[in-house]
């Protein structure tokens, strides 16, 4: 997996001050995507053990609320396979920090509605995420007044509550 960018003090992509990893690769192709350059799976730099360690160090200050994964799309199957071991490390080292994730895919029944996004890592990766912003960006539904999402069809989901309840529970910002 490659990544397009890392932000170590991001306040735009989730609550609090966050470390954000923008992965490369997306097959969704949303019209007027804000990060079209990251659609290419080979764009950016390789996600290596050194990258992981740098991210873990960036997460260590007490003022950092957590990690945000976005892209590209973290839920492209090849990205899931690379991210799952890293997310496990984050949860093990920082159990009190939360993980936000953005995807153009749609969350449903503990997995993703679109079969092309499902792989052996999907359900475990979802189970480790605290907040999932799902759904394609739709230009016609763009609304700059929305917190943490670009278009009104996208949902901000409290994943832990959703998995426990068995139905979608929206995260209250």
Molecular structure report:
By secondary structure, the protein is of the alpha/beta class. It is 24% helix and 25% strand. It is built from 4 helices and 9 strands. The strands form 2 sheets. The protein has a 7-stranded mixed β-sheet with strand order 3-1-2-4-5-8-9. It has a two-stranded antiparallel sheet with strand order 6-7. It is globular, with a radius of gyration of 15 Å. The protein starts with a strand and ends in an 8-residue tail after the last helix.
Sheet-strand content, in percent, reads 15-25%
The level of helicity is 10-25%
- Helix/strand-derived category reads alpha/beta
Shape: globular
Q: Give the neighbour order of strands across the main sheet.
A: 3-1-2-4-5-8-9
Whole-number average pLDDT? Answer: 96
Please describe the biggest sheet, giving its number of strands, its sense, and whether it closes into a barrel.
Answer: 7 strands, mixed
Low-confidence residue ranges: none
For the CA atoms, what is the radius of gyration?
15 Å
Report the order of strands and helices.
EEEHEHEEEHEEH
Count of alpha/pi helices: 4
Terminal CA distance:
31 Å
């Amino acid at each position: 997996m490659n990544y397009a960018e890392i932000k170590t003090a991001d306040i735009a992509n989730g609550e609090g001050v966050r470390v954000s990893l923008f992965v490369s690769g997306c097959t969704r192709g949303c019209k007027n995507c804000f990060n079209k350059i990251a659609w290419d799976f080979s764009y950016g730099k390789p996600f290596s053990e050194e990258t992981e360690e740098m991210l873990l160090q960036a997460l260590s200050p007490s003022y950092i609320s957590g990690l945000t994964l976005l892209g590209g799309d973290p839920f492209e199957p090849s990205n899931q396979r690379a991210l799952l071991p890293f997310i496990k490390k984050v949860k093990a080292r920082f159990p009190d920090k939360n993980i936000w994730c953005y995807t153009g895919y749609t969350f449903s029944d503990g997995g993703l509605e679109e079969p092309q996004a499902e792989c052996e890592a999907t359900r475990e990766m979802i189970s480790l995420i605290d907040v999932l912003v799902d759904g394609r960006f739709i230009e016609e539904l763009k609304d700059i007044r929305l917190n943490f999402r670009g278009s009104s069809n996208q949902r901000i989901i409290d994943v832990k509550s959703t998995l426990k309840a068995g139905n979608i529970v929206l995260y209250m910002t």
